[in-house]
Specification:
Protein name: Universal stress protein
Number of domains: 2
InterPro entries: Rossmann-like_a/b/a_fold, Universal_stress_UspA, UspA
CATH class of the largest domain: Alpha Beta
Number of helices: 9
Organism: Mucilaginibacter straminoryzae
Family: Belongs to the universal stress protein A family.
Pfam families: Usp
Structural class: alpha/beta
Number of strands: 10
């Protein structure tokens, strides 16, 4: 059984992402694990050298576990109240561990069955720093797992129109195949979008795009795949426009170093995109 890992700091944004994950898991017949990172109250260069008093750890651990259990019960009851009795009901488990959010997520994602990390796009405290600061760049660059970022007010309604932004990298084909498996139960339309810098069209550009899409159609078993190329001076503006004009339900991208899409793990670019879009962002590792 597939499991979606959902880190939470118990903020409204994290709760919304967890709720999104539960209903996505229901449709994909997966389970959900809520997790919380127990860390020192103050982050500092010497924090790793500080030893917690045992009573403080026990108190924080107990408090976190109680909050996680309450959340799991709440989401399970919500899901059951709007579902048929014979439908899939995701098993919602919980866990808390000592460490930074980054360390805890990277540890738990190695557990058997974990296929996706689902997190709020912004939140209070550590989750906000995880996504929009150096921790997010570290996890996306080194974590090696797909991460689904959920805007704070986005409600799960399935997927009808999905876009995959590509620079025609070879490993994008595998990511498109993985994305197709996620959206297949929804019969969503999948558009592969190649955003290119403005300039003179070169003959090899069309040949490269044709070769890429030929490999996609031969490799990915999905009938509703289209291709579209966009030329833009500013990638941020192009993606924002794409999200707004095409009424997308999901935008996916592969993160690679030295790619035009490294904007995704730049704090300033991520914050700008997050403010202007209300669609989930799915980041695959490069």
């Amino acid at each position: 059984m597939k499991t979606f890992l959902v880190p939470t700091d118990f903020s409204p944004e994290a709760d919304n992402a967890a709720r999104f994950a539960v209903y996505l898991a229901k449709d994909l017949k997966a389970d959900v694990q809520l997790c919380h990172a127990l860390s020192l109250p103050e982050e500092s260069p010497v924090s790793a050298q500080v030893v917690w008093p045992l009573e403080d750890y026990n108190y924080l651990k107990k408090d976190a576990d109680q909050n996680l259990l309450a959340l799991s019960k709440q989401f399970a009851e919500e899901e059951a109240s709007v579902s048929d009795h014979d439908s899939h009901h995701p098993l919602i488990t919980t866990i808390s561990q000592v460490g930074t959010v980054t360390d805890v997520v990277r540890n738990l994602v190695c557990y058997p069955g974990v296929s996706l990390v689902v997190m709020g796009m912004s939140g209070a405290g550590r989750l906000k720093r995880f996504f929009l600061g150096s921790s997010s760049r570290d996890v996306i660059e080194k974590g090696g797992f797909p991460t689904l970022l959920i805007p704070s007010h986005t409600v799960f309604h399935g997927f009808k129109k999905v876009a995959f932004a590509t620079d025609l990298g070879a490993d994008d084909v595998l990511a498109i195949a993985q994305l197709a498996a996620v959206i297949k139960p929804f019969n969503a339309d999948l558009m592969v979008i190649h955003i290119k810098p403005e300039g003179v069209e070169q003959p090899e550009d069309a040949a490269r795009a044709n070769a890429f899409m030929s490999e996609v159609t031969q490799t990915v078993n999905y009938p509703a795949i289209g291709y579209r190329s966009l030329r833009a001076v500013n990638i941020d503006a192009a993606l924002n426009s794409l999200c707004e004009s095409d009424e997308l339900d999901l935008l996916a991208v592969v993160h690679r170093k030295h790619s035009i899409y490294t904007w995704l793990t730049s704090g300033s670019h991520t914050q700008k995109l997050a403010r202007h879009t209300q669609i989930p962002l799915l980041v695959y590792p490069g």
